[in-house]
C-alpha cells in the first residue's frame, strides 16, 4: 500500500513492541492534536509536510485540533491574540499538508460535537486514536468510545496506518475501575468538577480508571460539567478515563470497587476559594474545551445585559455556524467569538492579563502565561461580566 503507509505502520509497530502490546487493532477514527504552529514550530511543520510529500494519506476519518488563529478570519484576534506573518504562513502550511493527506480540518478540541463526526455514527465500544487529552477523557468516560491518550504525531501515524496498538484502555479489563470515589457535593458545577479532577489526579494511583460517584446537574448544563471534568482530568494528570455511574456506557451495578474514598465538601470548597479570581478581571474566557452550539443558548440565557467585562469565547466553525441567532445576540451583549483557536494554542498579545474562566484546564495552562487566572462557574461569570 505504498512507502508512506509502510513507514507509519512501522512506527506504530515499534511503539507497540516497546509497550509490550500483543497486536494491533483497526481504528474507526483519529483525531490529531498538537497542530498549532505556536506549539510545534518548524520541526512539527517539517514532520507533517514530509509525511504529506512522501504520499501519506489518512486511511480512516480524521479530524484536527485547533490552530493558532481564526482560520475563517485571521484578522479576528478578539483584541487579545497576535498573529504575525511567519506564524500565519507556518500554520497555513501545516493545515494544507494535513488537509492534503485527507484530514478534516474541523479545528476543534470537541470534534465529537461537530456534524461531520455525528454523521460517522460511531457506537460505544468503537476503537479510535485521539490526541487531545480533554477529548480522550470525554470519549472514554461519556461517549464510551475507546482511545488511549495519544501524542499528536502518533495519532497522525495511526490515522495513516488505520491501526493502533492493543494496549491501555483498548483492553476491556483495563476499563474496569479500581477504586470508588464519592463526591460529597451535589450537584457539582463545572468548577467543582475541575477541583474533583485535580484531587483525583493527585490521589488516584492506578492504571485502571476511578469510579466517581458524583451528583450532576440536569441537562443541558450537565454536559458542560462533564466536558470541563474531562478536560481537567487530562490537564491535571494522566487519567484518560473515569467511570461515572449513569453516564459511562457500561453496566456499573455491582461494580463498585472497595469502600468509597470520600472527596469531602470542605476540601472542594476551600480549593474553590483559592482558585476564585482575586484581581480585577480584564476579560472572561469561555471555550476551553471549545464551546458547543448549545452552550451559546445557555450563555445567552445567563447573560442578562451588556457585559462590561469583555467575554472571549472560543469555538469551532461548526458550532459558530450552527448557533444561529445566538451569535448575533451575544455579540451585541459584548461577547467576542474566535473560531478554530483558543488562548492556549494561540499566542496572547500580553502576559499582563488578569483572566476569569470556568475551565480548570485553561487555568492550569494559563496560570504561568498571564498575571492571574481565576475560576468561577458560567452563571457566576455571566453575573460578573454584567456587574463587575
Ligand atoms: Fe481546546 Fe485549547 Fe482548551 S485546544 S481543550 S480550548 S487548551
Walk me through this protein's architecture.
The protein is an alpha/beta fold. The protein has three domains: 3-172, Aconitase, domain 3 (2-Layer Sandwich), CATH 3.30.499; 176-272; 276-386, Aconitase, domain 3 (2-Layer Sandwich), CATH 3.30.499. The chain has 14 helices and 13 strands. The strands form four sheets. Strands 11-10-9-12-13 form a five-stranded parallel beta sheet, with helices on both faces. It has a three-stranded parallel beta sheet with strand order 3-2-4. A three-stranded parallel beta sheet has the order 7-6-8. Strand 2 (30-32), helix 2 and strand 3 (62-64) form a beta-alpha-beta unit. Helix 7 (190-203) runs parallel beside helix 8 (221-236) and helix 7 crosses helix 9 (265-275). 51% of the residues are buried. The site of FE3-S4 cluster has 14 residues, from strand 9 and helix 13. Residues 65-66, 109, 134, 231, 288-290, 314, 342, 344-345, 361, 365 line the site of FE3-S4 cluster (F3S).
Condensed summary:
The protein contains 14 helices and 13 strands. It has helices at 3-19, 37-53, 85-100, 115-118, 133-143, 152-161, 190-203, 221-236, 265-275, 293-302, 317-322, 325-332, 360-366, 378-386; strands spanning 24-26, 30-32, 62-64, 129-130, 163-165, 179-183, 210-213, 261-263, 283-291, 311-315, 335-339, 354-357, 372-375.
